[in-house]
Design a protein that fits this description.
single chain; about 400 residues; 4-stranded parallel sheet; 14 helices; about 40% helix
Length: about 400
């Protein structure tokens, strides 16, 4: 099954690239439920697009190998039809409409990233197609009144605010007023990163901290030397950066090249960009937000606990030394669909949508319970610190190596 499914996915992708247009229905046919997703397999988000796709596919293979989805006393297999959105919001919206209108897909999985999710959500909403998404964390997604959009992950304003809390705790422990802490930050100009920024600003304002650098990153995320030059001159206590995987890789490379020192450096998407292996000197001591930790004791009947999911995924994909949280939450999104289909005992879209809305479950990824707005209100964010190439969970400020010990 796994081999045949991967061949089908590759064929679909190749046909899309060639401009092939399919009119065949891909909803629920025979014993197969086909989910759809526009995903970034090329363009600036392709690294995380691939992590997401692998998480979706891993869950599909596991569910199918354990009996599939039972509806009306019949067992169904899951499949996913993918199109490459090229990391472009307008293209993603076109492809989601194509999946629904031309291909007959009745249930959607989300794309990678808040910007693309923001582009496709109105499309699935327009046609009354449920979408369970794993990668769009922007809180603005959940203020639009959508009834068919559901996200398994925590919202983005929570991502890097804990770094400010840790800086305040360390200042107090050293006998300093937290208001003396000086913060530098740079963010991609996209919905996700701007929400991350809002959370950081709120946390810094709470303590009266001074923000000495507040930059927007270049659109191509290939150079942040302007921000880092100012950081070197102003010597802030905290440096915070958010620019998805490409931004994290650029940050790791240029922080190392420019030998940037700061007591706390916090960056999103560390694992996905593999900064711990590509830039071991610069990354040592970095703080990295994560939606999920493999040491979580939470579990479910399909994947076991977090450590078991993590180990099984590495067997399927041995190239991963550290599995990014984007992959784990993608698997969790597919699991939500299985549970919702079975709870609804139907493929009626309204009934399935209502079953998704009523989700209240423990999974290997974390607890999942949706607010009326569609965001997950049952799971916190976590912070980890890189040390010797490993990621260590930070529960309190005492768990953190401080100041950061970059070895240039």
């Amino acid at each position: 099954m796994l081999k045949n499914f991967k061949i089908t996915t590759a064929m679909i992708f190749a046909l899309v690239v060639a401009g092939f247009s399919s009119s065949a229905s891909a909803g629920v046919e025979g014993d197969t439920i086909t989910l759809g997703s526009a995903i970034s397999l090329s363009g600036k988000y392709s690294t995380n697009g691939l992590h997401t796709q692998r998480g979706y596919d891993f869950a599909v293979d596991r569910i199918n190998s354990r009996g599939g989805v039972t509806v009306g006393g019949k067992s169904y297999k899951l499949a996913i039809k993918y199109y490459d959105d090229e990391s472009t919001p307008a293209r993603a919206a076109q492809l989601v409409e194509r999946l629904i209108q031309q291909d007959g897909v009745e249930f959607m999985l989300g794309p990678y990233g808040s910007g693309l999710t923001k582009a496709v959500a109105p499309v699935s909403e327009k046609f009354g197609v449920p979408m369970v998404e794993a990668e769009g964390a922007s809180r603005s997604l959940f203020t639009q009144g959508y009834k068919y959009l559901f996200a398994v992950l925590s919202t983005s304003e929570q991502y890097l605010a804990p770094a400010i809390e840790l800086a305040a705790a360390k200042a107090k422990a050293a006998g300093r007023d937290p208001s003396s802490v000086r913060v530098a930050m740079a963010f991609e100009n996209d919905p996700f990163s701007l929400d991350v920024r809002a959370g950081v600003v709120d946390a810094a304002n709470k303590y009266g901290m001074k923000i000495v650098i507040d930059d927007k990153l270049p659109a191509d995320l290939s150079d942040m030397s302007t921000t880092l030059t100012k950081t070197k001159a102003l010597k802030p206590d905290v440096l915070i950066i958010s620019g998805h995987s490409k931004g994290a890789a650029t940050a790791g490379r240029q922080i190392e090249e420019m030998r940037i020192q700061a007591d706390i450096v916090a960056i999103t998407h560390c694992e996905a960009a593999k900064v711990h292996t590509k830039f071991p000197n610069a990354s040592d001591g970095m703080l990295c937000p994560t939606q999920w930790v493999e040491s979580s004791p939470l579990k479910d009947g399909m994947f076991g606990n977090a450590a078991e999911w993590n180990a099984d995924f590495k067997v399927a994909h041995p190239s991963y030394t550290t599995v990014p949280y984007q992959t784990a939450q993608a698997s969790a999104a597919v699991l939500v669909y299985k549970e919702a289909f079975e709870a609804a005992n139907s493929f009626d879209q309204v009934k399935v949508r209502d079953a998704i809305a009523a989700t209240d479950m423990e999974t290997f990824y974390g607890n999942i319970k949706f607010s009326e707005a569609g965001n997950n209100i049952a799971k916190p964010m976590f912070m980890r610190q890189i040390s010797g190439g490993s990621y260590n969970a930070i529960i309190t400020a005492d768990d953190m190596v401080f100041p950061r010990k970059a070895s240039y």
